[in-house]
TrEMBL record:
This is RNase H type-1 domain-containing protein. InterPro entries: RNase_H-like_EbsB-rel. It comes from the Eukaryota.
Amino acid sequence: MKKDKEERATCYEIKWKPPVHDVLKINIDGSMDPANASGGWGLVFRDELRVVAGLGASHMEHLQDVLHSEAEAYLQSLFQAQIWCISRVHVELTHNFWCNRSREASNGAIFTDIKFQISLNFSVFSIL
């Protein structure tokens, strides 16, 4: 029984990896309550020493699905980086954001805006 618990804990253990020097890493998450089509987003910017350089969170309304909440969270992180004059970032996203492409068409405008914001406003941009 103890071995099973240890295996499960190890299986879900995720280690935070720092960005390279002079780049801030952004961790992002979005959530949604399908009962009322609302949710929230959160983000944190950290440097290679794990020092928090900025954070944010807010409520969202009129969400279509979970992918929509994730995409909005991603977009908000890009807007925050611009407001804070951060142009060198590394983004870490949830697995759901990249693997759930079947509903990308319903959120196509957000993905287009994300790509545009990246190309326009960042000198260093990498994604994990």
